[in-house]
Amino acid sequence: MIIETQNLTKEFGSLRAVDGLNLQIREGEILVLLGPNGAGKTTTVRLLASILKPTSGRATVAGYDVVEQAKIIRRMVGFLTEFPGLYLRMSLGDYLDFFGELYGISKEKRRRRSEELMERFGVLGIREKRLAEFSKGMRQRVALMRTLIHDPQILFLDEPTSAMDPHSAKMVRDYIRGLRSSRHTILLCTHNLAEAESLADRMAIISQGRIIALGTPGELKRQLLGVPLFELRLASPLDSLLSRVGEWVEIEEHGPYWFRYRTALPEEVNPLLLHRLAEEGAEVVTLSELPRSLEEVYLRIVEDGDGDTLSV
Amino acid sequence: MEIPSRFRVSPLAMGKGASESLAKALVITRREAHDSLRDWRIVTPILLLTLIFPWIMSLASKVAANFAVAYGVADNAAIITQQLVPFSLLIVGFFPISFSLVIALETFVGERERNTLEPLLATPISDGELYLGKLLAAMLLPVAASYLGLVFHLIGLRWITNYHISAQAFLQVALLTTMEALVMVAGAVVVSSHTTSVRAANLLASFIIVPIALFLQGEAVLLFWMRYDVIWLMILGLLIVDLALVRTGIRIFNREGILARQYDEVTRSGLRRSFSRFWSSPPGIGEEPPPLTLGRLYRSHLPRLLRHYLSPLSVVLVVMAGGLLMGWAFAMRYPLRGGLEGLVNSDLGREWQDLGVMPGLNVWGIFIHNVRALLIAAFLGVISFGVASLLLLLVPLGMVGFLLGQAVSVGYSPFIILVAFVLPHGLVEIPAAWIATAFALKIGAAILAPPRGLSLGEGFLLAIINFLKIFFLLVVPLLLLAAFLEARVTPRVALWLLGG
């Protein structure tokens, strides 16, 4: 495990922001941290990025202790903060150079890395432009470039695509996918469920400082929403066919031309059903799995968030 | 857990040397100085105060000298010029550094408010390096402008008024300017480290501006009277304050403190809760307060509180002894011409009473006077980091020391004088003043160094509550008793001992 926490707890006065967090992240994995506002996502990444110290428990990043070896961790990881927080009077080139210098990178290396990132994020031609003149989305891109300036292998990204236009957001998501293929480890906090689903190897849903669900998006859906629901539409009314179909699958709902059923074994059940319907002379228009949104899973988990951790 | 080979960091790569730390701090300083230089709101006044104001002051000095000559005090013109010019140097030096406070508040709190601080905190730079970098950044531009202004003013004086300023005066003004800038910047870090907005920090900045303004007035008087010896002492005092503020700043400027800071919202319910918690909790943090009764208050709570305040009580005791000795030394140096009788027979006491400085010699008058004096001292302590409270205690003790010294110089036994005039009520009044001043000192100190585990607001509130607790439950009853003794017993003892 490249990141590991044991009963990690952080209190601010009487408020327990992170409550006995146990988490393991493998090298090269993207783990998405989902949760409502104030759930403890940002505090968790701040603890792992060695910016805050835990009240109790411990955490290691690449084998280094977040308290004892905080400086090493800060040098090694890239942390994209929730707000871009740019120095608006600086030019893009100077800004990246400044952060590169803080990470102890040589001048020549800084210049090369800055250009590489500017090219990758489509801002190479505007290195002399003041950051104040940048749009919200571009500022967010600059913040991401700042996070990547020292080429970290471990990334903590807090809302990386918030405030971005769809084009910029896609560019960033593609970049993150690219990082996964080069064995970067990423812990990503987001509210964007579609983004979470498209990027996550695993997802952890956090509420009141505790992880209440952990697993791949598919696993979480199956666990929370049950077996998939299918809908079959016919060209002609069901009428007398309905009772026979009821013998083959368990119908949940139906209309004059359609019916819905659940099956945990679609690869066996669905071809058989189609074959039998064809034998009966029924013309099938469509057979499809009804989409089950991650939002549904998320809301269900967060609403029942007081229970034990659901680990899949 | 074993560290994967691709993540292993060589100890050399981490670099711990002082020069590397300084280099990192200077990266911060450079960026912030560039940022300030891009802000016309900072650059324009600094340029005006550096390039134009010194020449205006040089001309003003010339006009002042001409005025002295034109209105028939030509003989004194040289003396007036000699005394006024160093004062103008003080103004030229101070005006640019006043911007250091604004820059410091911007660089420390403004960064947090604009969310630009957290990306810095995520880098490998240490808290100390970041603090040093920002401290230098806030001082660099104003202090450089101040030096430049002083040099221009010197050239202007030489050119326009043909006046030579002494090297000592110039060095003192330059040192005072630098140290005042450091007080303002380091003080700004201390107050701003406990706020979440520039607005709140600006409000708290009055805790820096007021003492600095008072200090400047003192400097001006000393420069006018050319008391360079005392100014050296002031420089030493400033250096000590600088070191204390920097030490406190280093302690409180850390990632944990900055990011965990709560909003400084004052709510009635929050205040009530804190007040009730601090009122009933025994000294020390984190203890569960038992139900507070009057008996418990006097038997255990107040004695524990006094033990908890051992350090400020010791400081005040040393200052009191110093006040007595100073008064004594003053009496030795300046003996009264008519001896003690001269003082007793003079109308001084009545004149002071007419001015409202001295109380009427009755129980109520003395009591009200003492309560008022100690409350004013406490209030002044709040806006002077506790220093004014100490200074106000020095005055009566200095007078006692002076009185005793005079008595000795004319052959009286100091013990007789002490017993006759001071001891009967002093046995009660002096401890009351001692305790009240120590608790007032702690209010001022709470701004500089809030108790661990408490925010600035909480630490400040705790110190005020402790002061009020000790003042009304212990000091006021003691002052009432002392007033009774002073009005009814002390005069009789004095008459009995010294004869009618």
Question: What does this 3D model show about the protein?
Answer:
The complex is a heterodimer of chains A (312) and B (500). A seven-stranded mixed sheet of chain A has the order 6-7-8-3-9-10-15, with helices on both faces. A four-stranded antiparallel sheet of chain A has the order 2-1-4-5, covered by helices on one side. Chain A has a four-stranded antiparallel sheet with strand order 12-13-11-14, covered by helices on one side. The mean pLDDT of chain A is 88. Chain A is elongated, with a radius of gyration of 24 Å. Chain A is built from eleven helices and 15 strands. The longest helix of chain A has 16 residues, at 166-181. Chain A is an alpha/beta fold and 312 residues long. Helix content of chain A is 38%, strand content 27%. Chain A folds into two domains: 3-222, P-loop containing nucleotide triphosphate hydrolases (Rossmann fold, 3-Layer(aba) Sandwich), CATH 3.40.50; 229-289, 2-Layer Sandwich (Alpha-Beta Plaits). By secondary structure, chain B is an all-alpha fold. Chain B has two domains: 17-259, no CATH class; 274-279 and 295-498, no CATH class. In chain B, helix 3 (40-70) runs parallel beside helix 6 (127-161). The model of chain B has no long low-confidence stretch (mean pLDDT 81). Classes of the chains: A alpha/beta (312), B mainly alpha (500). Chain A binds chain B through residues 1-2, 4, 12-13, 27, 46, 49, 51-53, 60, 62-64, 71-72, 74-76, 79, 81-87, 89-90, 98-99, 101-104, 143, 146, 153, and chain B through 1-4, 6-7, 9, 13-15, 24, 27, 31, 34-35, 38-39, 114-126, 255-256, 259-260, 262.
